[in-house]
């Protein structure tokens, strides 16, 4: 992968460690000379010896993923020495929970709106009587079945689309 790069210039690891980059260098394929900060961060957090041992223990097809994980964690540890990437994950999880609550509230508002519109239709009034915005539409044009509940207002209004004399 990096055979031509370390023949001309040592890999970022060997350059950082001030040693000669050998053709069988374990770091060369994963720490190219153009990315010196990547190895510097990994070395600062994990140490070159530990990274070398880890790469020798990991299957060759998994080494690139291992190095990418180490580099990500090292960068996160430099930014947040206590929590590292776990801190970033926690922030994202809290954001997902907040957005899920917001989505649930919006869906509840939509259900309430739909139920109010259907109750208005069930009472025999046209939508236009309640709101001038929809005055030119037929009552059946305002029933929107929701994907999360086939009949969100069944308990409140008992409105069912099609069949029977519900309107």
Describe the overall structure.
- This protein is mostly helical.
- Helix content is 55%, strand content 0%.
- The protein contains 7 helices and no strands.
- It has helices at residues 3-8, 12-17, 36-46, 48-57, 63-79, 85-122, 127-130.
- Helix 3 packs across helix 4 (48-57) and helix 3 packs across helix 5.
- The longest helix has 38 residues, at 85-122.
- It is rod-shaped.
- The relative contact order is 0.07.
- Residues 1-7, 130-146 and 155-167 have low confidence and may be disordered.
SSE blueprint:
Blueprint: H1 3-8, H2 12-17, H3 36-46, H4 48-57, H5 63-79, H6 85-122, H7 127-130
Give a concise summary.
This protein has seven helices and no strands. It is an all-alpha fold.
Tags for this entry?
disordered C terminus; 0% strand; mainly alpha; 55% helix; 167 residues; disordered N terminus; 7 helices
